């Protein structure tokens, strides 16, 4: 399958554009949208684009233009959805992408545009980074200083090959970002802001976390759990900071499990002409792992705490 890059301009002066990869049946009007972390570009979700579109899902991986605050991002994202004629979307967001997904659900709570959220290694309060004062001066910092600050979150210890490869790929994507792109993302990542989940309690949420070492501490993860006590949880035994790359089969399986709840309704992300897969078909992408290994690697928790 060949994926074509699209650039969509939604601002009035025509200078800022969103970069998209749109895979899967275009008749689906409530697709899965993927938002990247600070260091990512739209193409980091190529395994989700290829894997899920092959099963009939429409997946749109997005890379947002330079926005210096969350409000500006939300206004631009809403205009993009209007341009694409999408009333609602399911959003899969990692780290900053997950935070922005929550803030967009909050921003549109009076006229909801988010059908559901899948949050991966993300947070609900930017105070965890303790860099709120610095967020106002990122715009003047040299690119190499900004990249070095991001790379500090990339642990350089020994990892198995899949995780090491995911880190190398993300470092490569980080290097492709301009100074303005990176500075604006860090500004949104670190400026004082927090999620108000009570404004979108009707939105279905799944939280994907890893048990091994990643940039976010357990206390940060616990805060996310507290905000969404009824959310479904998908735990991976390992995967590092970028499980959608290093553990793509497991992540894709849990994305399908999440989206199954919407298959027979208005907000399905899959072409309704395709027959509903059996549970065995959903899990077949993980068949390269032994049954015992797969069972140990992932689990879903639907209980409230």
From TrEMBL:
Residue span of region Disordered: 270-305
Matches recorded under Gene3D superfamilies: alpha/beta hydrolase
Composition-biased stretches (Low complexity): 284-305
Annotated localization: Cytoplasm
Principal place of residence: cytoplasm
SUPFAM superfamilies: alpha/beta-Hydrolases (SSF53474)
GO cellular component term, pick one: cytoplasm
UniProtKB keywords: Cytoplasm
Residue ranges of domain AB hydrolase-1 in the record: 68-179
Family: Belongs to the AB hydrolase superfamily.
Name of this chain's protein: Maspardin
């Amino acid at each position: 399958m060949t994926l074509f890059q699209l650039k969509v301009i939604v601002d009035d002066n025509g200078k800022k554009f969103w970069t998209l990869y749109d895979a899967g049946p275009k008749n689906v009007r409530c697709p899965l949208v993927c938002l990247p972390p600070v260091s990512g570009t739209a193409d980091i979700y190529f395994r989700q684009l290829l894997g899920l579109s092959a099963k009939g899902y429409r997946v749109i991986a997005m890379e947002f233009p330079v926005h210096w605050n969350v409000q500006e991002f939300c206004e631009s994202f809403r205009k993009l959805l209007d341009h694409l004629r999408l009333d609602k979307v399911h959003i899969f967001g990692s780290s900053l992408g997950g935070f922005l997904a929550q803030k967009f659900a909050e921003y549109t709570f009076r006229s909801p545009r988010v059908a559901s959220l899948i949050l991966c290694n993300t947070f609900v309060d930017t105070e965890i980074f303790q860099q709120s004062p610095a967020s106002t001066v990122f715009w003047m910092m040299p690119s190499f200083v900004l990249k070095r600050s991001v790379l500090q979150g990339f642990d350089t210890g020994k990892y198995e090959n899949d995780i090491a490869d995911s880190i190398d790929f993300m470092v490569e994507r980080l290097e492709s970002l301009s100074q303005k792109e990176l500075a604006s993302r860090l500004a949104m990542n670190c400026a004082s802001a927090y999620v108000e989940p009570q404004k979108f309690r009707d939105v279905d949420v799944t939280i994907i976390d890893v048990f091994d070492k990643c940039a976010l501490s357990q206390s940060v993860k616990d805060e996310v759990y507290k905000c969404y006590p009824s959310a479904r949880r998908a735990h991976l035994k390992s995967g590092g900071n970028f499980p959608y790359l290093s553990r793509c089969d497991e992540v894709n399986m849990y994305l399908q499990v999440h989206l199954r709840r919407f298959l027979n309704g208005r907000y399905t992300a899959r072409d309704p002409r395709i027959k509903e897969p059996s549970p065995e078909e959903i899990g077949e992408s993980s068949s390269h792992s032994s049954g015992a290994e797969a069972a140990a690697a992932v689990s879903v928790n639907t209980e409230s705490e």
